[in-house]
Design brief:
The chain has 197 residues and is an all-alpha fold. 82% of the residues lie in helices and 0% in strands. The protein has 10 helices and no strands. α1 (3-15) crosses α3 and α4 packs across α8 (127-136). It is elongated.
Length: 197
């Protein structure tokens, strides 16, 4: 049933050993902060295939993700600058949220920006939801970047650290229970997409 996913997994594992592996990883994590891409499995795969480079891969993922987050923040900020008022006062949006309620929510978001970005950056919540909305709601850029570095770094270095310590056991578990893990991964991605899109 999952033979094509297994072939894809094996093919991606082979790419880790090629010279363009690191730019590809960085590019994917940059895009992940702007669009929804489930990139964590890529980092796990990279770290499993080359455990000696796990910290390096986590560093690349962190830098690229934060840079993507800043890009997404800028897109959200630009969206607010040019069309924010018209969007907030449009009938479609007012059907869900009044301008007054939006302003109240934005003030709450600004008051708790550190907690909001740290949570979104570390948890399974799509990071792009926080990056775009942070720009749109005009959160301060410095706290946004700082929280993004802390949260994304903590998430990716934790992942790399666990694999560096338990890499062989994890690889054996993946090889043994690949179909079950693939099914669970598809289910989790589908649930996240359904919840946040």
């Amino acid at each position: 049933m999952f033979s094509w996913i297994r072939k894809l997994y094996d093919w991606m594992g082979a790419q880790v050993h090629k010279k363009h592996a690191e730019p590809i990883l960085g590019f994917l994590f940059y895009l992940e902060a702007i669009f929804f891409l489930p990139t964590d499995p890529m980092l796990i795969l990279y770290c499993i295939e080359r455990q000696e480079r796990a910290v390096r891969y986590a560093t690349i993922a962190t830098i690229a993700s934060v840079l993507g987050g800043v890009t997404s923040y800028a897109l959200g900020f630009t969206l607010w600058y040019y069309w924010g008022e018209s969007i907030i006062h449009s009938k479609a949006v007012n059907y869900i949220l009044s301008p007054k309620n939006f302003e109240s929510l934005r003030q709450i978001y600004q008051q708790h920006e550190w907690l909001a970005i740290l949570t979104a950056g570390f948890s399974p919540i799509p990071y792009k939801a926080a990056t775009l909305s942070a720009g749109f709601c005009q959160l301060s850029l410095f706290p946004f970047i700082t929280c993004s570095i802390i949260a994304r770094g903590a998430r990716f270095f934790l992942c790399a650290g666990v694999i560096k310590i338990f890499g062989i056991q994890i690889k054996n578990i993946i090889d043994r229970y690949f179909n079950l893990i693939a099914l669970m991964t598809i289910g989790i991605v589908a649930l996240i997409l359904w919840t946040f899109t």
